Amino acid sequence: MIVLAGASASGKTEVAKELAKRYGITKVITTTTRNIRVGEQDGRDYFFVSKERFEEMIKEGRFVEHTLYNGNYYGSTKDQIAPNKCVVIDPKGLKAYIALNDPNIVTFFLDSKEETRYARMLLRGDKPEDAKKRIEHDRSAFKPENVADVDYHADSENFNIEEVTDYIYKKYLQILASRDLAKK
Description:
By secondary structure, the chain is an alpha/beta fold. It has helices at about 10-25, 50-60, 90-100, 115-125, 130-140, 160-184; strands at about 1-5, 25, 30, 45-50, 65-70, 70-75, 85-90, 105-110, 150-155. It is globular.
């Protein structure tokens, strides 16, 4: 399984899309309590559950990680961990996946400068004040100590999405192969 983390506009969502398109790496379907939006489908975009059911799932220990955001729960369940899957995660979630110490999980941090990420946010239509807030938030959320234990850093500053995707997929295969050899 590939775990992607990175600050806002570092390219993680685009890399996840490319991994799916080019290599058949499917997206982990996360669980949420928010209302389903037009065009979304339960079991494809998210698993939509009630707040009560989500809290039961927490008590049952079903989540690798979960968070409360804008009054709704979001989380990724342990049963979604599988080969050839990908999840885009925040630093808290990254730490939770690393803590599993699962040799089948390979973690990546996408690295790019604030100026580049700010410009990308504006290009995709974010309001300047929102982009600035995200940059500020990311400064503390993605401090070096919060991403120190990732398997690999991927340079999304100097390489395009296709190159970053190829790098990540190649490293994913290499690390799985090396971990398989270590088992023997």
